[in-house]
Structure formats: C-alpha cells, structure tokens
Amino acid sequence: MAAVKKTGLGKGLAALIENVETAEKDNSILEVDINLIEPNMGQPRKYFDSEKITELADSIKKHGLIQPLIVSKEGEIYKIIAGERRWRASKEAGLQKLPVVIKDITPREFMELAIIENVQREDLNPLEEAEAYERLSREYNMTQDEIAESVGKSRPAIANAIRLLTLSDEVRKMIIDGSLSAGHARCIAGIKEKDAQNKVAAIVVSSSLNVRQTEEYVKKMYASKEKKKKNKEVKDEGYSVEIKYIENSLRDIFNTKVTLKEENNKGKIEIEYYSSDERERILEILQKKQ
Fold this sequence. Notes:
The protein is α/β, with parallel strands linked by helices. The chain is built from 13 helices and 7 strands. It has helices at 6-11, 13-25, 50-63, 84-93, 107-120, 126-140, 144-151, 155-163, 169-176, 182-188, 194-207, 211-254, 276-289; strands at 30-33, 37-38, 69-74, 77-82, 97-102, 258-263, 266-271. The strands form 2 sheets. A 5-stranded mixed sheet has the order 1-5-3-4-2, with helices on both faces. The chain has a two-stranded antiparallel ribbon with strand order 6-7. Helix 5 (107-120) packs antiparallel against helix 6 (126-140), helix 6 (126-140) crosses helix 8 and helix 10 runs parallel beside helix 12 (211-254). The protein is elongated and about 105 Å long. The termini are far apart. The model is unreliable at 1-17 (pLDDT under 50).
C-alpha cells in the first residue's frame, strides 16, 4: 500500500484539495454507488447539526455535489476520509451516486487526514478535537510534537486541548451544547475535583463570565483554598507541638515511651512497658500520684 508523503500530511486540507484538483485534471474522479460508501467509524467528528445537513441537502438538490469525497477503498467498500457531512446531505437529497477520489493510505494516515480535514474546517467541537489528538497519541504512539506538526498547530495547543478530557461529564455537556467555550473549559480543566468543576461551570454560565473573568475566579478560588490549607497546617503544627510536649513530660515521669492519641478533644494515653517488673514500677508511680 503506497504511503502518503509526510509533507502532504503537513499541508493538511490544502493537500486534500490539491489531490482533488489533480484528480479532476487526470479524470480520476470516480462515480460510486452511495450505498457502497461508509463513514469512518474512527471519524473524530461525532456531532452533526441536522438543520445544517438539511440546508446542504437542499443545496445539493439544486446544484448537485460540487466537491468529491476523499475515500479509502477497503474491498468493495469506500471509507470516507473527508466529506461525511456531504455524504449525509447527499443521502438526504436522494442521490444514488457520488463523486469520489480514492487515496491509498495507512490507518494512521487515514486518522491524521480525517482530523486535519475537520480541524481546518473547524467542524470539530473542542472535545472531539481533544479525543482525536488523544487517540493519535494512544493508538499510534505519536508525541504531542508530532501531532502538532501533523495538524499544523503548536504543541501547547495540543496539550491544552487534551487537558479538556479531564473535565467532568456535566462540564463536557456544556461544551457540546455551546454553553461553555473552549477558553472557559481550559480554565476549568485546571481544577482537579469534578464537583468543583461543575460548580464553577455553573457560576460561569449563570453569571455570563468571560474567559478572563473565569481565569481570575479560578485563581482566587485556589488562593482561598491555599490559605485555608496553610492555616490548617499552622493549627496542626501547634497541636503537634502541644501533644509532643505532653508525651515528653509523661515519658520523663514514667521513664518509658508514652503515646498520646487525640481527635476532637478525645483520645487515649498509651504507656508502654516491657516486663512485669516494669509494669509494677509504673503502677507504683500512678499510686503515688493519687
């Protein structure tokens, strides 16, 4: 199977368009039965706007399908690399055959081109994009630098996108329905606790906070948590010093190891002894103290 050159992948959507233009000149665009064309199950795009599909279907009914699909042939089936939205609209429009350009590529290149086509057309929501990058990393062992080079983005942009996968299901739904932008989501992704993510997201939406305001809110929230943590550490440290003082005082009295365990002003004192004679000695001391 002939591999696509890396430079072609780097060009992204432009490379696909070049491929179509070349195909048109070479008359290598094929008319294929629409029933033999299938979407790529690994397609990064999961959500399609039904209203926009219908609008495109109406346009296709009037003007036909102008741009061919990019596909990969598997046996008798043609898997869509680029153009699933057009395929869906064409089915709705009642077309029987579609123009396609066949690309002979590896599974990894298939995945890369599908992502590139969607990212550069801005067809993916932030979560779909993040999941696509994570899949390239997981299934094809690509580094973030390699993914960045492949899709024409910076490495920090890839890293920030993947961070969105740490968000709770509730916050993810807000991203999908458009309540939260990618910018808002990146701010919230810095919060580890899922419950806290949900609360902040709800505040952002109800208060119509912009991205900068969200960023400041999260910073203040963490500053407040850090202050409480330090206050607790100081309190615990003071408590530990007091406990240690009592243990040392009792150790000096009984001349053996003494441990004080306390919680919420309740606890117990453990006095250790290592022989019956030592036990009697400690009991004598206690009797004298009465």
